[in-house]
Structure formats: structure tokens, C-alpha cells
Amino acid sequence: MKATKADINWLGDVSVFEVNRLHAYSDHRYYQTMDEAVGSGAMSMRYDLNGTWKFNYAIRPDSRPEFFYTSDFSSEGWDDIEVPGHIQLQGYGQIQYVNTQYPWDGLNEIRPPALPQDKNPVGSYIRTFHLPTGWESNPVYISFQGVESAFYVWLNGQFVGYGEDSFTPSDFDLTPFLQDGENKLAVEVYQRSTGSWLEDQDFWRFSGIFRDVYLYTVPAAHVRDVHVRTDLDKSYTNGTLQLDLKLEGKAVAGARVEAELRDREGNTVKTFESKVNDGQVSLREDIGTVNLWSAEIPYLYRLYIRVYDAAGTLVEVVPQAVGFRTFEMIDKVMHINGKRIVFKGVNRHEFNPRRGRAVTKEDMLWDVRTIKQNNMNAVRTSHYPNQSLWYELCDEYGLYVIDEMNLETHGSWQKLGAVEPSWVIPGDKPEWHDIVMDRAVSMVERDKNHPSILIWSCGNESHGGEVIYKVSQYFKSADPTRLVHYEGVFHDRRFDETSDMETRMYAKPADIEEFLNANPTKPYISCEYMHAMGNSIGGMHKYTELEDKYPMYQGGFIWDYIDQSIYKKDRYGKEFLAYGGDFGDRPSDYSFCGNGIVHADRKVTAKMQEVKFLYQNIKLFPDREGVKIVNGNLFADTSALELVYSLEREGHEVLRGTLEVNVDAQSETVAKLPLGAESLVGGEYAVNTAFVLKEATLWADKGEEVAFGQFIFTQDQVNDAAQTDLNLVSDVKVVEGDVNIGVRAGKTHALFSKQFGTLVSLKLSGRETIAVPPAPLFWRAMTDNDKGMAMGFELGAWYAASLMPRSVEWKAEQKPDQYRIEFTYKLNISEDVQVKVVYTVHADGSVRVHNTYKGTAGLPNLPIHALSFRTSPDFENVEWLAMGPEENYADRAFGARLGIHGSKVADTVAPYLVPQESGNRTGVRWAKLTDNAGRGFKIEASGTPVELNVSPYTAFELENAQHAYELPPVHYTVVTVAGKQMGVGGDDSWGAPVHPEYLIPSDGELTFEFVIRAL
């Protein structure tokens, strides 16, 4: 659309989404010389407008300074604001987080495309500039890489243009409006527009100029658009390059183009050329044998496109990365370069806890390295096109990408979880066709040259309908080299052809198998699965196990990569990571913004331990003799890796070595390991094997582990006769009082209370270890997933049972070498439930603790079967021989490994946005709790390993805090020994139960046993 005057009514007009905007084009760079192009540094024909602008904020349109764009308007007295950046994160307006509901739900009674009139914040920006030297006779353009959600532009008082679509560029021609000397640029940004109805993603609702802004000029003959396509022959060895160019400028007539393809080392592979005909060039060249691009081996060529004018003068050079690869459907299975692909993916929002979606290059570099280091091979740009640099990094580092257009209308068709599409948009509504299609075109035209992009996505959670179907048809016609994804056809099967693959969100493993066993016509991916909210990712193995079982199961994308939480100060001035509602935002979806496998401050969560292991392409299966190596890579052998092996006895290393083992992709072998298994003394052993990088790569340092496998076995003692150190044995002395029973064995002094029915004191070498006596525990601080499945309602009786167990009986038995006392408890949950805790003080000073639970029918499952006590906070160090190093649970321990791991007690509490159960270790053989002088006590599993949580807080303190700052000052170290704790789940966070095998039925008998002894 063309116009010379701005019209505020465009904001609510679904037919107007751009005015005077240039057509979308590829995101290539261009230079004046070959040296500049080879260096690919800053462009001399681009002038950065990022930085400080003058700014005015108005809460609604009728209070904005309407004529601020005029040349004589003075912005003196206005504030400063940084560009790029969100208005709301720089002290203006309301920060708000909502998920599926529209941000005005319950506040404004409107339907699309109407907008709230009382609250539509307006940001007025002013920036002055002088043209760079040498630009005076050239055309000059301006590019806004991202503005949320609609904006008007004026230069020197004259209207330039209007744009919507927050996440793709809007370019305008400034040439007619320039003047000598200083130029005044004015931009008016609205938070609400018709585009807002299409941008109902699960994120914070911001506005402003949040991506780069720059001026640019072009040479007399300029490549405006580049389209590079590659193809491979049936052997996937020989490549073809298709190059299509669109040129513009006064020197295009008579111009010619020369294209030089260079390999990674800079050697020329082929040079070809063509004259420019009617502003266009189309070339197709056979390249011969080529190196293929994949996430495993992201081999990139460089194509240098040189433009010469009619006189033969070089006027422009365009460097373009080229990756030779094909992505295609073969027999209903997706293939990359002829091999079946499995997406080991993650959904990624652009996010920074201080800058919101105005992420930096440093953020992106950290992200791409972290994703690669943890064995992920794919990213879905949820749910909008990302900054161009992200795709360049995915090309270079090697990540497969689902590029998703900026479309989500979740609140128009799903309410309170129910599908109710009575006023869904875009649906079949023809008036929404153009505005939606424009977003698709803008994404494809900008991103089409990135080999990392395998799939175009029609957006997210916008139901179905004809409009989105037509978008998919556009994708397929504009770019037949890629496939098309859209999950919403699950809700509207009328247009099933919209998506080339069956793609669902949060389907249970059994549901996926049901689909795959029903002779489907499409392959399956989970575009979102494993909802990683808080303490989650339990049961992920049930999904990854499908990869080898069903060829048409082709992986999934974890939701999601990074917590969307924002730094805020509490009332005492201390920073914390805040979530929805913490800014007074209503409506809000509160902590639902925290679903990351990475915390918002870019610290990796404990959940990543499981992700890295289950996503590894190379599987290692060691035993006592060697290791079976299964290389599941499609293309890469193991020549860049070193096999490191070690043998540990009781957590201590016995031997270590390295091997050179080169296993081809898609093959396996067995490597013998010199472990000396035939001569081992008795004990528990762990064979550890790992592949590590021989040399540093772009994404990791030398020595980075890329695959791991462990085998645990027990070597019997040659002589099982126990050897007793008589120096440690003492007589067991008992003093029975009216209320208490004292038991002394050497330096151990225990005091049992008949009144309270428990151990009330345990002094080891004169130091007290019991601050608050042990008590049976059947409750854990609810995780986000627990809350989502209504654990408080369904299992809440165990909360009360844990608060008020009643000691109903005690009995004791004394022998020469031990004293045994048994306490029996009743619980208020049922008369038929009985709990017994038996303490046995031995002559060597150790205290054996045996816990028995006898249940009954009709009760809810147990969250945990444990015994918990509090000790001095001086015992602030913990060391385990257990599964680790990070926290793990019954359904999230595949990535854990047996070893000796240590931590500060304070650091065992994971910084999830809402305090909840965290820090657990499974497979605990022993644990030591010490003060900073090394004094303390040891807990040992007796026979069967136990689970252990050592924390500064009780389950009830964690349960009753919504933020970490609400937790009390630390007064204790809380020790919770469990026979079993239920899994954490993760299929979703709004009702999916923990898988049955990781639950704890309450109708049987449960026991566990451990020993406490002095160090």
C-alpha cells in the first residue's frame, strides 16, 4: 500500500499492515571490494542508528504528542531511551506476562480486529543524524529489524511509512525526504494493533524498537535479492547450485555478474558468470563432488557474487554461505542427505533477563554453544522468526532449524484448555488472508538461503482453517526444497495437507505409539514435548526410546530452552528473577514463563544432565571386559574423539586410560578395555567410558564430553569374614529414665524420648547431630508438575499425615553388643496405616535406622517414603557416593552417573522460579555431612541404596514460599533419607501424571535402612 499521510485508523484495519514498505529480500551482506567481502566485517554502506534516542511515553493514543515528527517540534525535556530495547524494561508502562489468553482479557470487551482504546501505549522516538560522507548522491534506505507491534515513520516532517509484524524487517526508502545537514527521524510505536491479535505467543508482552535500526545505501548496480538453492544427485555426492539474483540501480543495464565458489579452505571450486537481463540473473551449475552440510558436519562453502558495471568496474561483492544438502520425504520418512533424520530438538525463545527479547550476539553465541554441547541438533524458533544472526550461527555451528512464522492466535480458540473456535482467527476468514500471508512471505524471503533451515512452520497454536492452508501452499510453491510444519491441523483435519508431518504437542508416549501403529501416512514429530517447568524432564527416556523402535518417529523439541524471567528488586533492594504477576500485571499466567532447561541468567539447570545423555548420538555400553560402541551419527565417524575409560572402586579411581577407536557413522564395534577384571578385590565397581573432543571446536573446548556410558558391578570378596577393629568396639551402656533412655557406645551417645517417640539427641564424638528429631515424612514440596496434576488435592492427606504422626508404642531390646528400640506411629490419614522406625545402637558406635511402612487399600499414592531430621547449619558441606553429579530422581536418572560428588548444602537447592522439591540424589551408597573443619557424620545405605536430600529448608518451608526471598533465614541443615520418592514427570505441567512405574502405591509394605556413624 502507498500513502503520503499517516492514518491512525490503520492500527485497527486488518487490510493495512504495511505502507510504503519495501518488498522483503534476502538477508545477505554486500561490500565494495573482494577484501571486504572475504573479511565479512562491518559494512561500509550501512550506518548504525542503535544507541540513545529521545523518547516520550503515552498510555494511550489521545495523550501522545501527535505532531512530534514536525521539524519545528522540540524534544527538549524528553527522556532518553536505548535502542534496541523494550519500552517496558526501561521504566515505562506495564510489564505483563500471559500465556494463551490475550493481555486485555477481562479488561476490554472486544473481538478482532478491535483494539483497546483506554490502554494502547505509544512510544514516540526521535533521532537526528547526518548522512555519512559519500552518501549524498546515493539512494538511502532505513531498516527496522524488529518493532513491536506497529509503527509509523517520518523524516524531516514528512511521512515515510508504516509497518506491522514485530519479528521481520521493515525497510523504507528515505531518499526523497533527506535534506542537507541534520535530518530528524521520528518513529511512533504502538503496543496494540491488528498484529497484536496474531501475536498471542506464550511470552512477556512488550513494545518498542527491540532489534537493530540502521541506514544503508547501495551501489549503482546492487543485488537486492539473492536466492541460492542446492541439489544433490541420487548418490548424494555430486552437487548442483542454482543462483537467482534480482538487481537494481542505474548501472544495472549492461552489468554482468561473476560468481566464484570457494571451499572451506578458500580454494576456488568453480567460477561462472552471466549478464544481467532485465535486472535478473539465473544460473544453474553442476559443481561435481561436494562436501555435504549437516548438523554433524556443517561444511560451508562461500559464494562470492561480483557485480561489474558496463565498463567492467567492480561495484559490489556479495559473500554468501552455501551448504550443499537435501531434505526430502522418502517413503513417508524425512531424510537429510539420504539418511533418516531424528530431531533432538528444543524450542527457543529469544530472551535475556535484563533485555527481554532484545538479545545480544553474546547471548546467541552462548546459546548455540550450550545447545551443541548438550547434544541437541535442532531448534524451533518458537514462535517467530529470530534475528538473522541466529540462522548464520546455526549454519556455521550445525543446527537444524524449524523456522516459524510470527503467528499465534491461541486466545481466539482455546479457553481454559478447551477448544472453542467460535471466533477463531485467521480460520477461514478471507479478510485475514493478506496480513497472515505477508508474515509468511517476509520470513521466507529473508531466510531462504540458510542451509540450517529444513522446515518452514505456519506458526503456532492458531487452530486450522483455509488461511493457514494457503500459507502452507505458498511455502511449498516458493520453496520446494523444504517441508512444511503446522501442528494446528490436529484440531482441524479439513486441511490435513497443510502439514507434511504429523506434529503434536505433549502427546503421551502411548498416544504416539498408537498413531505410529495405525499405518500413518505421515511421519511424526513432537513440536513441543517434555514441558520443562521447574523440576521436570522426568520420563524423557520414554520418548527417546521410540527413535529406534519406529522409523516414522522422528524426534521432538523440548519446551523449552530458557526461562523467561526478568530481574527485579525485592523490597530490600536485592535482585531476584521475577515471573508473571510480580510486576502487578493482571491478568497474568504467573510462573508459567519458567519452562527452561537453562535458567534465565544462562546457567544450565540440573535437567540438562538428562537431556545431554538421552540426546547423545553415540551410545556406549561398557561391561567388565570392554565397551560396545554404537555410532548413531548419520555422517560423522568418531575420528575427532578420544575414548576415555576409567575404573572406580567405591567411588575411587583404580585406573584410567585412553583409546583411539574410529567407528564409522551408522555402525558399531566392541573395544576391549584393559581393566584387569580377573584380579579385582571385592567391592562395588563402576566402569566409566566417555568420548571427548580431541581438539577444540567452534562449540566446545578440547576434552568436552560428547557421549558417556557406565557399567556398575559388584566383585565378591574372596573371604567374606568381616574383620572387626576391636579398638572401635565398646560396651553398650543404657540408662533408662522415666522419660528418656540414654544409650552410650564409645563416643556415641544417643537419647531416645518415650514422650516424643523418637531419637532426640545423637552426639558423635561430643558433637550434637540432632537439632530437630527425626520424623516420618510422606510429603515433598510440590513441583510445578505436581501442582499441575493437582497433587495438593489428590495427595494432600499425606501433607497432614507428615505434620502430625503420633507415636503410639515403643519397645526396646538390649543385647551385649547392641541396643534396639522400636517406635510405632499412627497417621491421621487412616487407622490402618502403621509406620515403625527402629534404631539400633551398635557396639562400634554406629546407629542403624530401619523404617517400615504398612499401608492399606483406598489411599492416594505416596509422594515419598522418608525419614527427615534437622541438624546444625554448621554442617554445610555434603559429599555423596551416589548418582550425580546433578540432582536426579527415579524417572530422571538416566543421565546421572555413580561417583563421589560434593556440594555446599546451600547449593543443593535448585533456583527454580518457585521454590519446590529439588536437590535429590538417587542410588546413595553413603553421604558425609561436615563443617568447614571437616568434622561431621556419615550416612550409609544398608544393603539397598537410598535416596537422599540435604537442604537448608524443610519440605514445608519450600511448599509455602512462592519466591526464594520468602524462604526463612537458614537455621538448620535438613537431612531427608528416603527409601523411595515418586518421579517428577514432565509429559506436561497441567495434568499429566508421573508414569506408573515411578509412582509409590500406598497399599503395600515399604522398607529402607541406613546407618549413621561418626567420621
Can you characterise this structure?
- The protein has 1015 residues and is mainly β.
- 10% of the residues lie in helices and 38% in strands.
- A nine-stranded antiparallel β-sheet has the order 51-52-53-54-63-60-59-56-57, with no helix packed on it. An eight-stranded parallel β-sheet has the order 32-31-28-27-26-35-34-33. A seven-stranded antiparallel β-sheet has the order 1-10-9-12-6-3-4, with no helix packed on it.
- Strand 27, helix 3 and strand 28 form a beta-alpha-beta unit.
- Helix 2 packs parallel to helix 3 and helix 4 packs parallel to helix 5.
- 50% of the residues are buried.
Please give the largest β-sheet.
9 strands, antiparallel
Low-confidence runs (pLDDT<50, min 5 residues)? none
Principal-axis shape: globular
How would you classify the helix and strand content by structural class? Answer: mainly beta
Name the strands of the widest sheet in spatial order.
51-52-53-54-63-60-59-56-57
Radius of gyration: 33 Å
Helix fraction?
Answer: under 10%
- Assembly state (oligomeric): single chain
Number of strands: 63
- Total helices: the number is 13
* First-to-last CA distance: 80 Å
The percentage of residues in β strands lies in: 35-45%
Keywords for this entry:
10% helix; single chain; nine-stranded antiparallel beta sheet
In short:
The protein has 13 helices and 63 strands. The protein has 1015 residues and is mainly β. The strands form 15 sheets. Strands 51-52-53-54-63-60-59-56-57 form a nine-stranded antiparallel beta sheet, with no helix packed on it. Strands 32-31-28-27-26-35-34-33 form an eight-stranded parallel beta sheet. Strands 1-10-9-12-6-3-4 form a seven-stranded antiparallel beta sheet, with no helix packed on it.
